[in-house]
Structure to design on (805 residues):
C-alpha cells in the first residue's frame, strides 16, 4: 500500500507537470520517476523522447503502465491487488476492518480503465487511491492489536517508506544538483510528491532552498516521511519485536542501528555543498533497509530449529 | 391456487406486481412454503406477509445488498478464463428457508444418533472389526474401499472419536427429511452458513425477532471447544491450528474464516515440523508445540512419509506423532471409509448394531450395483434413477437418468457393467422446493441442507445448516460447482 501511494504521487506530479511546464521539465520528470522506481519505461517509449507531440502521446501509455497495467508489479492497481492477496492470506492476523477497507477500495478500483477517466480527470482516480491508502493506514492504526503483526506491519511500512524517499532523493539530486538554486519549481515538486509542501513552508519559508529541502526530507525527526524518522520507527518496532524473542533480536536491528549511528555522526558534519557526500549518506540508509529485509526473513521466518529451543 | 396478496406493511407501489402472483405450486414436489392447495403453511405466513409488503424493487435492492456483503467480505472464488481470473461470489438468495423448531429437534436427534454410530463404526473397523466379523457389512466392501487406511489399524483415539466435524446432507420430499450423504472427511460450507445468516439477518431484523430465529453465530466457539477437548495429555489451554492447503484452495476463505472465529493460527504444511515426537509450529517468537490440528487437507496429503511421498501440503512425520498420541488430528485420517457411497447404505444397520435403536433419519433408498439383483434393477431402470460413482463427489461422475439422453444412458450402462461395485443407484428424488427471488418474482427452486455436527466429549449442533439451492430452473443439482447457491436457513419458534 505504501508503494501504491508513492507511485500514485509520482504519477500525479508528472500529470500536473504535463499541464503547463516546459518540455524539459516533463522530460526530466519521467527520468526522475523511472530512476526512482529502478525500472525502465514500457518498451519503445521513454527517455529519448523527441518532440512535444510525441511525448504527449506517450503520456497515455506510460500512465496506463504505471497505474493500471496488471503485469507491472509497481503499477498502482497491481500494488492494491497484491496487498489484497497478501491480506487475504493473513486475514486472521489483521482486523476485519482492515480487510474490509482494503477489499472495498480494490473492488471500487479494479474495473476502472484509463480510457474511462483519461478525458475527464485521471487525477481523481489517483486521489481516490491516495485516500484509500490513508484510510487503510488509519484503520490499521486504530484497530490492530499491538502484537507481532503490528510490529511487522510497521517495519514493512517504514522500510518501504525509507527506501522510497531515499530512492527519490537520490534520483532528484542526480538530476538537480543542490547548487542549482534556480530549479525552484523542481524542488517544490519534490516536496509535493512527499506531500509535505505545507509543512516545509510553515517551518521554513516560501523560498525553496535545496539544501534545506534535502535536510527536511532526509533528516527531520519530526517529519514522519523523512528517512531518519523511518529509521527511528523501524528501530523501535524491531526493539518491540525483540522483547518477545530475545534470542532473535540482534541481527535485523544491526543494519538499522549502524545506519542511524553513521547518520548521527556524519550527517551534521558533512559538507553540504558536496552532493557526493550527501548521496553517500542517502545510499547508506537505502542499503541498510534492503539488508534488513533479508535478515528479518532469516531471523523470524526461516530460522533453523536448533536456533530456537521449543517453548 | 390460493395465494393471496397481503396488505403492504412497508412500502407499496401500485404499479408493482405481487411477488407471489405467479408462483406455481406443483403437487409432485413438496413446497416448504405453500401446501399443495397453494395455502401458506402457518409458520410461513409471517414471512409471506412481510415479503408481500415489500415492493419488487426493494427486494431486488435487498438481493443486491446481500451479494455486495459477500463481495465486501471476500467470499469469492476464482474462475480462470483465457487471460484473466474472474472473481465470483457464491450465488446467494436473500429469501430465507424456514423450519419449525419441533421439526428441527427431530432432525437434530437423528443427526446425533447417526454420528454416534458412525464414530463407533470407525473405531470398530480400525480395531476389533466386530461388525465385519458378525457379517453385518461385507468385509470386502470395507477392505476394498479406497478410503480405508490400513495405517490406522490399532490406533485407539481418545473417546473413540474419529469424526469431530461432520456435514450431513439432508433432503426433504413428500415423505419427510432423509439423509443423502455423510461428509466425514473435510466437510466444507459452514462459513457460507454463517455468511448467509449475517447477510440476510440485517434485512429482516423485525421478522427475525418475531420468529425468535435460533442462533448459529456461536458455531466458532463450539468448534473451538470441540477441538480443545480432543487435545492429548489433558492440556489446559491447548494450541489448536487449522492446516490449509493454501490460498489457492477453493475453500481458503472458509479456512481463514474459521481460524478467525476460533482465534487460532492458520498454517500450511511448511509452517509445521516434527521434532522429538511432537509437532511444532514456526512462529515469529520461535517454535510452539501444537496439540490439535484441524486439517483441511485430504488424508493422503497430510504426511509424505506415510502417505503420498510427493505431497507438498503435509508435514513429514506427522502421522507418527499422531500414532504416539502426541497430537490430535480432526478429522482423523481414514474417516472416508464411513462416507463411501456404498458404505452409506449400511448406516441404518450400523445404528441398529451399535446403538440397538431404529434410525431416526432414514437413508435415501440405495441400490448397490455390486449386488446382482441391484445391478439388474439399475440397468433396467436407468431412465428413472440417479447413478453415482462411489468415489466421486461434488456432483461429478453422476448420471441423472431422467435428464440423460438414451446414448448417455447406454454409455453409462457400459461403464457400470465394467465395474459394478463402483456404482450405486438411487431413485430420482423429488427434492423439496422453496421460493427464490428472480427478476420475475418469487419462483420455486429445489433445496437441500447440510447441518454441521460436532463431536468430542459430547455431540453438539448449532440449529441451522448450509442450505444449498439449485438456482437453475428445474435443476436438482445443488452443488456450488454446478450452478448451485446458498440460502439462509431459519429454525423458527412456531
Amino acid at each position: 500500500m505504501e508503494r501504491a501511494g508513492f507511485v500514485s504521487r509520482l504519477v500525479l506530479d508528472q500529470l500536473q507537470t504535463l499541464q503547463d511546464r516546459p518540455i524539459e521539465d516533463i522530460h526530466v520528470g519521467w527520468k526522475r520517476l523511472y530512476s526512482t522506481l529502478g525500472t525502465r519505461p514500457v518498451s519503445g517509449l521513454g527517455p529519448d523522447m523527441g518532440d512535444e507531440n510525441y511525448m504527449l502521446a506517450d503520456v497515455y501509455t506510460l500512465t496506463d503502465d504505471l497505474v493500471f497495467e496488471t503485469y507491472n508489479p509497481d503499477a498502482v492497481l497491481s500494488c492494491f491487488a497484491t496487498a489484497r492477496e497478501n491480506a487475504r492470506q493473513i486475514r486472521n492476523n489483521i482486523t476485519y476492518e482492515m480487510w474490509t477497507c482494503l477489499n472495498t477500495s480494490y473492488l471500487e478500483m479494479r474495473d476502472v480503465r484509463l480510457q474511462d477517466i483519461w478525458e475527464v480527470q485521471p487525477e481523481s482516480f489517483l486521489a481516490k487511491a491516495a485516500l484509500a491508502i490513508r484510510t487503510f493506514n488509519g484503520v490499521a492504526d486504530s484497530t490492530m492489536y499491538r502484537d507481532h503483526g503490528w510490529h511487522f506491519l510497521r517495519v514493512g511500512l517504514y522500510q518501504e517508506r525509507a527506501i522510497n524517499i531515499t530512492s527519490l532523493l537520490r534520483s532528484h539530486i542526480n538530476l538537480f544538483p543542490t547548487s542549482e538554486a534556480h530549479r525552484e519549481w523542481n524542488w517544490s515538486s519534490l516536496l509535493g510528491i512527499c506531500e509535505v509542501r505545507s509543512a516545509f513552508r510553515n517551518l521554513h519559508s516560501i523560498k525553496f532552498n535545496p539544501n534545506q529541502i534535502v535536510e527536511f526530507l532526509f533528516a527531520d525527526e519530526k517529519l514522519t516521511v523523512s528517512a531518519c524518522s523511518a529509521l527511528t520507527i523501524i528501530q523501535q518496532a524491531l526493539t518491540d519485536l525483540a522483547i518477545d524473542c530475545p534470542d532473535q533480536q540482534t541481527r535485523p536491528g544491526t543494519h538499522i542501528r549502524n545506519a542511524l549511528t553513521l547518520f548521527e555522526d556524519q550527517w551534521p558534519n558533512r559538507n553540504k555543498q558536496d552532493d557526493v557526500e550527501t548521496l553517500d549518506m542517502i545510499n547508506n540508509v537505502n542499503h541498510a533497509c534492503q539488508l534488513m529485509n533479508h535478515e528479518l526473513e532469516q531471523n523470524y521466518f526461516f530460522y533453523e530449529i536448533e536456533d530456537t529451543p521449543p517453548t | 391456487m390460493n395465494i393471496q396478496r397481503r396488505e403492504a406493511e412497508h412500502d407499496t407501489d401500485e404499479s408493482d406486481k405481487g411477488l407471489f402472483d405467479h408462483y406455481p405450486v406443483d403437487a409432485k414436489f413438496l413446497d416448504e412454503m405453500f401446501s399443495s392447495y397453494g395455502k401458506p403453511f402457518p409458520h410461513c405466513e409471517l414471512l409471506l406477509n412481510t415479503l408481500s409488503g415489500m415492493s419488487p424493487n426493494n427486494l431486488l435492492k435487498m438481493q443486491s445488498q446481500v451479494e455486495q456483503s459477500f463481495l465486501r467480505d471476500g467470499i469469492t472464488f476464482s474462475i480462470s478464463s483465457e487471460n484473466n481470473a474472474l472473481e465470483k461470489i457464491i450465488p446467494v438468495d436473500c429469501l430465507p428457508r424456514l423450519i419449525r423448531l419441533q421439526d428441527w429437534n427431530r432432525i437434530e436427534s437423528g443427526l446425533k444418533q447417526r454420528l454416534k454410530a458412525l464414530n463407533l463404526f470407525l473405531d470398530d473397523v480400525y480395531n476389533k472389526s466386530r461388525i465385519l466379523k458378525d457379517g453385518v457389512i461385507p468385509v470386502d466392501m470395507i477392505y476394498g474401499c479406497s478410503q480405508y487406511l490400513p495405517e490406522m489399524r490399532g490406533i485407539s483415539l481418545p473417546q473413540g472419536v474419529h469424526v469431530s466435524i461432520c456435514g450431513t446432507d439432508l433432503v426433504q420430499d413428500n415423505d419427510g427429511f432423509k439423509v443423502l450423504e455423510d461428509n466425514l472427511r473435510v466437510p466444507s460450507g459452514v462459513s457460507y452458513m454463517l455468511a448467509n445468516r449475517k447477510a440476510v439477518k440485517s434485512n429482516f431484523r423485525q421478522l427475525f425477532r418475531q420468529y425468535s430465529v435460533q442462533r448459529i453465530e456461536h458455531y466458532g466457539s463450539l468448534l473451538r471447544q470441540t477441538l480443545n477437548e480432543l487435545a492429548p495429555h489433558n492440556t489446559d489451554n491447548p494450541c489448536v491450528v487449522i492446516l490449509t492447503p493454501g490460498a489457492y484452495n477453493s475453500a481458503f476463505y472458509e479456512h481463514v474464516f474459521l481460524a478467525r472465529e476460533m482465534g487460532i493460527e492458520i498454517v500450511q504444511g511448511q509452517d509445521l515440523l516434527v521434532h522429538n515426537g511432537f509437532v511444532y509450529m514456526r512462529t515469529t517468537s520461535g517454535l510452539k508445540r501444537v496439540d490439535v490440528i484441524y486439517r483441511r487437507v485430504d488424508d493422503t496429503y497430510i504426511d509424505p512419509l506415510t502417505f503420498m511421498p510427493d505431497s507438498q501440503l503435509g508435514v513429514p512425520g506427522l502421522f507418527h506423532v499422531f500414532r504416539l498420541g502426541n497430537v490430535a488430528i480432526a478429522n482423523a485420517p481414514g474417516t472416508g471409509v464411513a462416507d463411501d457411497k456404498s458404505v452409506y447404505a449400511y448406516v441404518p444397520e450400523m445404528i441398529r448394531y451399535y446403538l440397538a435403536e431404529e434410525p431416526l433419519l432414514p437413508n435415501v433408498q440405495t441400490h448397490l450395483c455390486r449386488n446382482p439383483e441391484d445391478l439388474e434393477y439399475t440397468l433396467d431402470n436407468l431412465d428413472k434413477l440417479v447413478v453415482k460413482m462411489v468415489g466421486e463427489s461434488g456432483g461429478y461422475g453422476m448420471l441423472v437418468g431422467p435428464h440423460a439422453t438414451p446414448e448417455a444412458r447406454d454409455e453409462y450402462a457400459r461403464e457400470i457393467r465394467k465395474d459394478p461395485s463402483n456404482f450405486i443407484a438411487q431413485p430420482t428424488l423429488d427434492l423439496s422446493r422453496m421460493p427464490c427471488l428472480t427478476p420475475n418474482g418469487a419462483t420455486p427452486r429445489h433445496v437441500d441442507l447440510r447441518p454441521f455436527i460436532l463431536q468430542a466429549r459430547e455431540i453438539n449442533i448449532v440449529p441451522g445448516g448450509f442450505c444449498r439451492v439449485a438456482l437453475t430452473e428445474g435443476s436438482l443439482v445443488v452443488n456450488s460447482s454446478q450452478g448451485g447457491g446458498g440460502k439462509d436457513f431459519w429454525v423458527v419458534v412456531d
In short: Chain A touches chain B through 26 residues (CB under 8 Å). The CA atoms of residues 179 and 306 of chain A lie 55 Å apart. Residues 1-144 of chain A form one domain.
